[in-house]
Amino acid sequence: MKDKSRKNQIIERFGKASAYDQAAFVQKIVAKKLAEKIKLTFPNSTFLPIKILEFGCGTGFLTEELTRLFPKAEITVSDISPAMLERAKTKFDPLRNALNFQVLDGENPPQYPFYDLICSSLSLQWFADRQKGLRRLIDQLNPDGQLWVSTLCENSFHEWRQLYHQRNLLCPIMECASISELQSDWPALGQGEWISEKIIDYPQNGFTFLRHFKKIGASLPEETIPPLSASKLRTLLKLFDQGEKKITYHVGYGSFRKSSRKGVFVTGTDTGIGKTLTAACLVRAWKSFYWKPFQTGLSEEEGDSAVVKRLAKISDDQLISPAVTLAAPLSPEAAAKQENRIITKHDISFPSLKDNEILVIEGAGGLMVPISPDKMMIDFIQDCQLPVILVARSGLGTINHTLLSLEALRSRKIPIAGAILSGTQNQENRQAIEKYGKVSILAEIPYLDQVNPEQIEIVARNMPAFDTIRPSIDC
């Protein structure tokens, strides 16, 4: 309740900061510096962020920089203060800037969707629990995604604080974290670092400093410190004006890159299309791990995990047990319903592998197979954050089914590693899929009169090396 009350005070204080832009010159400087640092981490136009979340946008200083740096990105612009967000909206032309404005508490982001870049300038210092907030944000990053933030650090405004100390008074300006404290906040699932810089302001006098401080909404005092009397405040202002009249901002710039996942998600244009055979060949070729998250039909067969283990000759360590096992040979949702179950996110935990280990995930059926009342297989694929290999039959009907599946994947901006055709080779169909689907055919698996480990070994030799795959999102 205490945190909630504090948050409400922050929202109210910033909502009233109507002269924010005129007074927030330091905020403008920091936003530009942060944008410059972000730009340096995306030097290659091939790997620009597609989905971006900015939290704590204020009136849009960093937003302006992001729209310039990444004009084709989908940018969600958010702030905890509705009034601030409305002022930010007025700076942008809705016809030129495809921005999604949303009232959002950056410390408690929604669980979906996932982003390639999450960033914020000078809002982190207002988090009630900085470490938990940062980790929640990192959870929303795609593998290899980046979090960039700037925040005020320890010893900011120390000239003003020193005046309080000289008079044996408690300074109401909030204490900020040190760089070492900030560094300890990063989790172990990626690489994070902090650097600090000084920005020095030379206000005309102490009253000018306090007036600017109030205009930007940053004057909310610490809860346990009562405000000064007017006479004591006048004494401090006089002391400030007798000195050098400068204010130092210690600004920390934090960056975090989430560890990437190595692997692919094998799905198909239909059920019985050859996904398991393809997965076995890939596992054999890459000496990878295998995971079938949803296994149905166990009342009639041994399950795909056992098949892949036998065909690809992998060890128990390379085989990751299914998250959900069901008896009926139906979609996961329908099979679960027969067992009076509903599959939820709590049933599924993504496997934790080492950085150099490759994971092959095999889906159940095609893209639009229901998993639960509110989730389809394509939704789960999106959650896995791995490029897709689409398995399609080589014969009659494949062009339509394959192009529709590719279109569905691209509509969700899911990276596509390529397609693999299964069955008797058909050069015309292959060429049509490559041309109209704008996708690479990674391999063709011929009809096998015998499916055994020896045949899988032969076919696996024609699979592309994992490091040669180049996933694409664009059509």
From TrEMBL:
The metabolic or biological pathway listed in the UniProt record of this protein is: Cofactor biosynthesis; biotin biosynthesis; biotin from 7,8-diaminononanoate: step 1/2
Listed under GO cellular component are:
cytoplasm
Say yes or no: keyword ATP-binding present.
Answer: yes
The UniProt keywords, alphabetically, are:
ATP-binding, Biotin biosynthesis, Cytoplasm, Ligase, Magnesium, Metal-binding, Nucleotide-binding
Query: Where in the cell?
Result: Cytoplasm
| Binding sites annotated in the UniProt record for substrate | T296
The residues listed in the UniProt record as binding ATP, with positions renumbered to this chain, are G272, I273, G274, K275, T276, L277, D304, E362, G363, A364, G365, P446, Y447, L448
Q: Which GO terms describe its molecular function?
A: ATP binding; dethiobiotin synthase activity; magnesium ion binding
The residues covered by the Methyltransferase type domain are 53-147
Q: What class of enzyme is it?
A: ligase
Needed cofactors: Mg(2+)
Q: Does the keyword Cell membrane apply?
A: no
Its transmembrane ranges are none
Give the reactions, separated by semicolons, that this protein catalyses: (7R,8S)-7,8-diammoniononanoate + CO2 + ATP = (4R,5S)-dethiobiotin + ADP + phosphate + 3 H(+)
Q: What is its main location?
A: cytoplasm
Gene Ontology biological-process annotations? biotin biosynthetic process
Catalytic-site annotation from UniProt:
K292
Q: Its domain of life?
A: Bacteria
* Positions with a binding annotation for Mg(2+): T276, D304, E362
Give a short account of what the protein does.
Catalyzes a mechanistically unusual reaction, the ATP-dependent insertion of CO2 between the N7 and N8 nitrogen atoms of 7,8-diaminopelargonic acid (DAPA, also called 7,8-diammoniononanoate) to form a ureido ring.
Family assignment from sequence similarity: Belongs to the dethiobiotin synthetase family.
Binding partners and assembly: Homodimer.
Q: Which HAMAP family match?
A: BioD
- Please report the name of this protein according to its UniProt entry: ATP-dependent dethiobiotin synthetase BioD
Q: Which gene encodes it?
A: bioD
